[in-house]
Amino acid sequence: xxxxxxxxxxxxxxxxxxxxxxxxxxxxxxxxxxxxxxxxxxxxxxxxxxxxxxxxxxxxxxxxxxxxxxxxxxxxxxxxxxxxxxxxxxxxxxxxxxxxxxxxxxxxxxxxxxxxxxxxxxxxxxxxxxxxxx
Length: 134
What we know:
The chain is of the alpha/beta class. The chain contains 3 helices and 6 strands, in the order βαββαβαββ. The strands form 2 sheets. Strands 3-4-6-5 form a 4-stranded mixed sheet, with no helix packed on it. The protein has a two-stranded parallel ribbon with strand order 1-2. Strand 3 (50-54), helix 2 and strand 4 (79-85) form a beta-alpha-beta unit. Helix 2 packs parallel to helix 3. It comes from Leptosomus discolor (Madagascar cuckoo roller).
């Protein structure tokens, strides 16, 4: 696959180090790019086949920019895989509930059952959801 890994500007150096340390595992291409949620994504077009999200649901202030970025990045055939740890402390349950409520305005969700998760890494508090544009 041809992969673009994204994060904020201050983490680009770490992304490049991780790419370099793992290049022996790559059969396609990998590049690091800055992606700030809520900002312009035209340089990431055309829409990717897959978007992998890991642990992106944590600040209430980030929900709207994250959802805008997902809407802007996805096409009709894009599959988003969202993995997150369900947290029960503080405002986390409310933030998670709001995220999925807002997400369902433009997207359809399907939870991947725990028995389909990798046996070595599965956990009751780790969830994986597939997301597609409506």
